[in-house]
Amino acid sequence: MHDLTAPCIRCGFCLEACPTFVLTGDEARSPRGRIHLAKAAMFQGGAEAFDTCLGCLACETACPSGVRYREILEHARARLEAERPRPGLRALLAVVTRPRLLRPAILMAGLLPGRHLPGWLARAFGGIGPARLPEAAKHPGWAPYDGPTPRGTVPVLRGCAMDVLFPHVHEATERLLARVGFRAGWSNGCCGALHSHAGFTSQGGGMAERHGPDVLTNSAGCGSHIPGSEDVTTFLLRNGLEKMLTRALPRPRRVAYMDACHLVHGQRVLDPPRRLLRAVPGLELMELDDCHCCGSAGLYSMLQPTTAEALLDRKWQSVLRTGASILAVGNPGCLSWLAERAEGSTVRVAHTLELLEEAFDH
Ligand code: SF4
Ligand code: SF4
Q: Of 38, 53, 83, which residue constitutes the final position of a domain?
């Protein structure tokens, strides 16, 4: 742990980048404070500080000393999990990362008032809040499309939550890859990002390895966790989709783009989704003035609902200020969290790849 914390020079450049510090002004809820607790091996004593961290990695981007905060957090959470095991958290992970369990759980959640877990069940899951279970997206389906003869096959992560909640995004991915001449070779199973994030690092790392390097991902959280992976938008940009998009029929729409934390801070992917969206004729791309995490952050919105809701409020106000009718984002967790807030409003929340495929599909 000393090797990881030693580069921190306590300059504080990370403070304003940290959503939990900005919300609370509490040093213990800042990257610098959490690093200090880890350095002093105060895991159990600093449990609250580590539990409230979103793992958004904004502090890594802001840090001039190259502190590898993700590793510090994962290490701290692993130590905490050893000292304060939460079997309920393991059970929750087992459900949300296995499509064969998540599908029936989501169906059954439809029978619960407001899709909220009853308090007794939430407590049985070991300290999760009044969680609302997500809903699978409703999509009208894509028109038939036969792409050109593929010149190759590329591995693409099927994963868990995306496959269950947003299967149409996988279809959009497959179709966009076909448009630039590639067949999607689906790599099945969860990548273990949520496990590592929660402190089950060796399990999470082993699950990532199963997918091998060079796999393409359309989920920011997964891509940030699998070494050597590449976001689908980067691949599509490199393979000529931008030019193809400019030839699509114009469709005027104002779209706000939200950087998913693990895309911008974890993978440093800023430009490709923006360039592709801007290439769509008639699409006006807007930037948000709130660059903090939306509060989704893996299981965070279930484990820390009060902070998560406060961050969602800030993000949603920022979305409304753009005047956009669509919000684009590249991560399933953010998608379902923001879509919940969008219910009853005129703003639609969509995956970036879904919007890119729509440019052709009308
Ligand atoms: S983590 Fe980086 S930015 Fe934050 S206090 Fe330490 S050195 Fe400064
Ligand atoms: S990961 Fe995010 S919430 Fe956690 S310390 Fe860093 S900036 Fe703050």
A: 83
Q: Is residue 136 part of a domain?
A: no
Its domain, for residue 189, covers 152-358
Taking the CA of 265 as reference, the closest ligand is 2
Q: Which residue of 69, 296, 301, 303 sits with most ligand 2 atoms within 8 Å of its CB, as the best mutation to test the pocket?
A: 69
Q: What is the pLDDT of residues 314-351, one digit of tens each?
A: 999 999 999 999 999 999 999 999 998 998 899 999 99
- Does 233 map to a domain? yes
- Which has the closest alpha carbon to 133: 301, 315, 352? 301
Q: Rg of the Cα trace of the chain? A: 20
Ligand 1 atom 3: the closest Cα is on which residue? 63
* Residue 308 CA, ligand 1 centroid: distance in Å: 24
Do 193 and 317 belong together in one domain? yes
Domain count, the chain: 2
Alpha-carbon gap, residue 345 to 15, rounded angstroms: 33
Tally of CB atoms within 10 A around 82: 10
